[in-house]
Design goal:
Blueprint lengths: L12 H19 L7 H10 L4 H13 L8 H27 L8 H12 L7 H36 L5 H5 L2 H13 L10 H13 L6 H24 L12 H14 L6 H28 L2 H6 L1 H35 L13 E5 L1 H14 L5 E5 L1 H5 L3 H10 L4 E4 L2 H9 L5 E4 L8 H6 L3 E4 L2 H8 L5 E8 L7 E2 L3 H8 L4 E7 L10 H23 L6 E5 L1 H6 L7 E4 L24 E6 L2 E5 L4 E2 L5 E2 L4 E6 L17 E4 L2 E4 L9 E4 L11 E5 L5 H7 L4 H6 L8
Helix pairs in contact: 1-3, 1-11, 1-12, 1-14, 3-6, 3-9, 3-11, 4-6, 6-9, 9-11, 10-11, 12-14
The structure holds pyridoxal-5'-phosphate.
The site of pyridoxal-5'-phosphate (PLP) has 13 residues, from helix 23 and strand 10.
């Protein structure tokens, strides 16, 4: 999602801000900020502390690349392309300085240039770009092949090899064999701080953090950072004092330091600050040029004493020049971008250019929040809302829905599958996530890793899961008459045995009602029986001296028709999305719920057919008069039920019903607009919303809202 939606708040504000901090740390390194006052102080500031900057940038790359390792290589290709372009551009702008420095008058010019382009950079700070490209490529393919854990181990190994050519070079110098190995390495690359030895480990760290966004207490990270930072300081001072350093980019404790710092930054979420990325990147690229500019200007104005000889003055002059230059550049970029967006958006009303907007969903998050409030008000005080977001949140988009709900304080979620659960964690969802369905026991490790709560669907399943030897949170499901999943409520022995399984921690027990939506007497009696069966099972647990976990039995209709039940959770799905399953449903506690979703498309073609002509497959529609037809780019693959064909369903155009003419195709639908004035190509047609309620549309299709919504196709733009 590129939209900056205040409600979703997925963006990593902390990372964006720290990019700027890191860029100015790099400037401090290259201007040796404190040398005028104390060499010692400068060493600690720039040769140790500021060394965190580049690993941070590398971790950022790994972090945002990570979710796509399993997919095709296009994300990597995109990164390589982008970095190469920036690198090439930077090389070009530094050519004048290279000339001035006599770069091109060395003896072995060609080999030197190749070596610099691949490893060292043609200017001292440009090594970063080939390092990202090489490092990211290494991590990408290792992760694809061996998984992130083994990849991390391999990158640690490379880093260890690198460190003995960097801050611990003094040690390898004492070993003749090692010395000769490093001598060969240095013939190819000036330092081991490059894309092979240095970059991979930090890119892998970013990937690990991205993969493990489970809520661990922030305090642990703060402690971890403080401790590793202190150790890094000590390590840096020791190796410098001992005279071991050849170069000082690599420390052992730089690794935990980067890990904890980056993890901490991921906690700070909010608005996306995309412009800070450009800004910090430009500062990084441009600051050596600004060093030259400051020198020149100082000479011209006779202010060398303040801006060159004084290192702090020098630092600030270079920083301010770089910042101003970068700011102007960033603003110009934004302007160009905005103009591009504008020119792309301007003809959007014209269907010809409205590609990608063929058919789309509109989600009203205010209504979603409103529904949460209404449901909470209807629930007993101690009961919590468990938001059911399975099947892409009933077609609404799981990401948008869950993140919005999490933000407004919903702390419990239910999904159908483990993969949906993992996806939620990747979105940064905190709190309990209950998997309502079956999970293969071989995936027990993932249940624990992502802190997901598994439903135990039978005693046999529970004991099999237990035998994996991995501690897991679970809710027991009780079958009280639906005869789908769960342990039979009468099997007291099985229920008790489940509680006593060694590795499984039971934090909840629940059941599901199968006719709670109906108010006919027989169904009410059945539901009452289910409820009392559940009670019986729960009471028996209490009597056998086991601590009672959380209990829940109501889904949406359970709450609307049996609001007096006192449970710990209500598992609300369809009600959360503001609709009933069927249009004529009466409930005991009607609530002011508002529909969250609209499904819309556009007329892409209008044609008139003569009396007697037919439309579509099977020639199922024959015009009884001269008929005006609008073609809509939506078909059953997008989720419009085929059973609405031939006038069983309609869409709204200009506030009027346009009945479906002929059979709905996989990608197209024709509607009759003979009696609707002012329809042109490009006019919006509403399938759900604007007076067409999902329950009505679903009912016309012989189904319920739940099915209609959850079947909205993945190619519909959300
Ligand atoms: C899907 C599901 C729900 C949610 O049902 P709604 O009727 O949409 O509220 C609740 N519990 C279980 C077990 C489910 O599978």
């Amino acid at each position: 999602m590129d939209n900056n939606n205040a409600c979703t708040g997925k963006a990593y504000t902390g990372i964006d801000y720290f990019r700027c901090v890191a860029a100015f740390l790099v400037v401090a390194i290259h201007t040796s900020i404190f040398t005028t006052y104390s060499e010692q102080c400068d060493m600690i500031a720039t040769r140790i502390i500021a060394r965190i900057a580049v690993p941070f940038f590398l971790a950022t790359t790994g972090f945002f690349l990570a979710p796509s390792y399993s997919k095709d290589n296009s994300r990597l290709a995109k990164l390589v392309k982008k970095m190469s372009a920036i690198y090439a551009f930077s090389i070009i702008i530094y050519i004048p300085i290279n000339i001035y420095n006599g770069y091109f008058s060395t003896e072995y010019l060609l080999p030197n240039i190749i070596k610099d382009i691949v490893f060292d950079g043609t200017m001292y700070h440009l090594w970063y770009f080939p390092a990202v490209i090489i490092g990211a490529t290494i991590v990408w393919f290792l992760t694809k092949k061996f998984g992130i854990k083994r990849t991390f181990a391999a990158t640690l190994f490379l880093y260890a090899a690198g460190i003995f050519g960097d801050s611990l070079y003094g040690v390898s110098q004492k070993i003749p064999f090692a010395e000769s190995v490093y001598r060969h390495i240095f013939e190819v690359s000036d330092y081991t701080r490059n894309g092979i030895f240095f970059a991979p480990v930090f890119i892998a760290i970013g990937a690990i953090i991205s993969d493990r966004r489970v809520s661990i207490s922030i305090k642990k990270y703060v402690a971890g950072f403080v401790i590793s930072f202190i150790f890094m300081l000590a390590e840096g001072i020791i190796v410098h004092r001992a005279g071991l350093v050849r170069h000082d980019s690599m420390y052992i404790f730089l690794i935990p330091c980067t890990y904890y710092l980056f993890s901490l930054l991921t906690f700070w979420r909010g608005e996306r600050k995309a412009s800070l990325r450009t800004f910090s990147l430009v500062v990084y690229i441009i600051h050596p040029l600004m060093i030259v500019a400051v020198r020149l200007l100082a000479k011209l104005t006779g202010t060398q004493e303040i801006f060159i000889e004084n290192s702090v003055g020098h630092y600030f002059a270079v920083s301010i020049f770089s910042a101003v230059f970068s700011l102007i550049f960033t603003l110009l970029c934004q302007k160009v971008k905005r103009r591009k967006i504008k020119s792309a958006a301007a003809p959007a009303d014209n269907m010809l250019t409205a590609r990608g907007q063929r058919t789309w969903l509109e989600i009203n998050q205010d209504n979603l929040k409103h529904n949460v409030q209404i449901l909470k008000n209807a629930m007993p005080e101690k009961c919590e809302l468990m938001a059911v977001v399975k099947a892409q949140a009933y077609g609404h988009g799981m990401y948008e829905t869950a993140v919005c709900l999490n933000k407004i304080g919903v702390k419990a979620f239910a999904v159908a599958t483990i993969d949906e659960g993992i996806e939620l964690r990747r979105y940064g969802i905190r709190g309990e996530i209950l998997i309502l369905g079956y999970t293969d026991v071989r995936r027990a490790k993932e249940l624990r890793r992502y802190q997901l709560t598994q439903t135990l669907i039978s005693y046999k399943y529970a004991s099999l899961l237990d035998s994996q030897g991995i501690s897991i949170n679970a809710h027991i499901k009780i079958d009280t008459g639906m005869h789908r999943l769960g342990i039979d409520y009468r099997e007291a022995g099985d229920i008790e045995k489940t509680f006593k399984l060694k590795h499984i921690h039971i934090s909840g027990i629940y059941s599901h009602l199968c006719v709670s939506d109906s108010l006919n007497a027989e169904d009410i009696a059945f539901t009452q029986k289910q409820i009392s069966n559940f009670r019986q099972a729960v009471d028996r647990i209490g009597q056998s001296g086991l601590a009672l976990p959380k209990i829940h039995i109501q889904s949406s209709y359970g709450l609307l028709n049996y609001p007096e039940l006192e449970c710990d959770y209500v598992r609300a799905g369809i009600a959360l999305y503001g609709v009933l399953s069927s249009p004529d449903d009466k409930v005991r506690k009607p609530l002011d719920l508002r529909p969250v979703l609209s499904l819309k498309t556009k007329v892409i073609l209008i044609r008139t057919i003569e009396k007697g002509e037919t439309i579509g497959y099977g020639r199922a529609f024959t015009a009884s008069r001269k008929t005006k037809i609008a073609i809509l780019p939506i078909g059953y693959a997008d989720g419009i039920p085929r059973s609405l064909s031939c006038g069983k369903g309609y869409v709204m155009i200009n506030g009027k019903r346009a009945y479906i003419a002929g059979r709905i195709c996989m990608d197209q639908t024709a509607v009759d607009i003979t009696d609707i004035p002012d329809v042109t190509e490009g006019t919006t047609a509403t399938i759900i919303g604007d007076g067409i309620l999902a329950p009505t549309a679903a009912d016309n299709a012989g189904s319920i809202s739940n099915e209609l919504l959850s079947r909205i196709g993945s190619r519909v733009e959300r």
